[in-house]
Design brief:
The chain has one domain (3-97). Helix 1 runs antiparallel to helix 2 (35-97). By secondary structure, the protein is mainly α. Helix content is 93%, strand content 0%. It has 2 helices and no strands.
Length: 98
């Protein structure tokens, strides 16, 4: 699965979760319940939404940390290859002068 596929699936999941939450809130607001019951339901749904957001934030943090680590490793490899190539060219240049 490519990076874009993962990103698209994640965006869809977040959109679906937001849509479900908005639908649930709308249903609560228009349901024939007392104000006290409705407020309790809203508080419960808000708690669930908070838990979901915290979970997703943790996932994003983990993904970002892995991406940074991978980028550092890749940059280090490229840097070392370039350093080696420059060093070899300098050695060749020095030996040509002798």
């Amino acid at each position: 699965m490519s990076q874009n596929d993962k990103s698209g699936a994640g965006k869809f999941a977040i959109g679906a979760a937001i849509g479900a939450a908005l639908g649930a809130i709308g249903g609560l607001l228009f349901a024939p319940k007392s104000g006290k019951e409705t407020r309790a339901d809203i508080a419960q749904k808000a708690g669930e939404a908070k838990d979901f957001a915290v979970d997703k934030a943790g996932d994003v943090k983990d993904f970002a940390a892995k991406t940074v680590t991978d980028a550092k490793k890749s940059a280090s490899k490229v840097f070392n290859k370039v350093k080696k190539g420059v060093s070899e060219k300098l050695d060749d240049t020095d030996s040509d002068k002798k």
